[in-house]
Amino acid sequence: MIWGANMGGIEDTKITAAILKRFMHDFADVTNLDVAIVGAGPSGITAARFLASEGAKVAVFERDLHVGGGMWGGGILFPRVVIQEAAKGMLGEVGVKLELTEAGYYTADSVEAVSKSTAAAIDAGARMMVGLTVEDVMIREEDRVAGVVVNWGAVELAGLHVDPVGISAKVVIDATGHDAAIARIVQRKVPYAKFPTSTGGVVGERPMWAEVGEREIVRNTREIYPGLIVTGMAVNAVFGLPRMGPIFGGMLTSGRRAAEIACQKLKKSLKKSNQ
Ligand SMILES: Cc1cc2nc3c(=O)[nH]c(=O)nc-3n(C[C@H](O)[C@H](O)[C@H](O)COP(=O)(O)OP(=O)(O)OC[C@H]3O[C@@H](n4cnc5c(N)ncnc54)[C@H](O)[C@@H]3O)c2cc1C
User: Fold this and answer.
1) In this structure, are strands 105-109 and 32-38 parallel, antiparallel, or unpaired?
2) Which protein residues touch ligand 1 with a CB less than 6 Å away?
3) How far is the CA of 268 from the centre of ligand 1 (A)?
4) Residue 180 Cα, ligand 1 centroid: separation in angstroms?
5) What backbone torsions phi and psi does residue 129 show, to the nearest 5 degrees?
6) What are the structural domains of the chain?
7) Which of 129, 133, 250, 270 is close enough to 63 for a disulfide, judged by CB 3.0 to 4.6 Å?
8) pTM of this prediction?
9) Strand 144-152 relative to strand 132-140: parallel, antiparallel, unpaired?
């Protein structure tokens, strides 16, 4: 007897039905969220893990078919990432093996870092919705961001004329990296929107300076418009901060900070609705 040889009894249409049933159920479940995170790079994945472990209903919308954003490639396509002392626990706690390469500089395998961080976020209860681009936001009473508008990434690529759909969320986190895509959408579509930056809008990222970039990314992770928090490289783009090269502690710590801010907001809105 060959192991696994008893694989018969399969009908193609049942495979189709299983995919449709399961995905429709999962998609319907994410139409009302506590937190919608846009972008499944290191900051978005980390924010998702912390929020889900606090009991928030959270989903990450990622336009690519894979998660990880810019983390897979490490530095210049050498798939290793550098983490400083202060942030090494963030990868250690999800089981990523770290090597001390130089005093204060730890390295990790980027494939291991993305895989284990993502698995930990999913295990905590976060949903990863891949292949979906956020192309707009929903703005509601009191001028607050109240959700995201999504379409298939493939529809965007093909330039098809297909309407997107809305997902409501009490808080939206822009974790789209260099693009700061959600902040830019709000800036474009809400002309009177003022961000707490030097220009009142998206300033644009500055040249590389790792020390300042890593420090400031965490300090500037915040709500920039009611209901919209920025994290990761999007922070540097919005606030005009230096980029920092392939060191990832700031991304992870910024993701965690974004989750803390979102949690505080969710607790406040829960208190209000109970009053
Ligand atoms: C050109 C380039 C330059 C880089 N420069 C730096 C640097 O200066 N400093 C540095 O630390 N690292 C740099 N990196 C490495 C790396 O990208 C980042 O450090 C790190 O991955 C950023 O993490 P993040 O979580 O902010 O976003 P990212 O890892 O960039 O992830 C953002 C994710 O959002 C997704 N996304 C974007 N828009 C949408 C949308 N509308 N809807 C849905 N999903 C969306 C993207 O597909 C991506 O997966 C660079 C990478 C590239 C490709």
Assistant:
1) unpaired
2) 38-44, 61-64, 69-71, 133-134, 175-177, 179, 181, 208, 232-234, 243-246, 251
3) 31
4) 9
5) -105, 95
6) 18-72+111-274 (3.50.50.60)
7) 133
8) 0.95
9) antiparallel
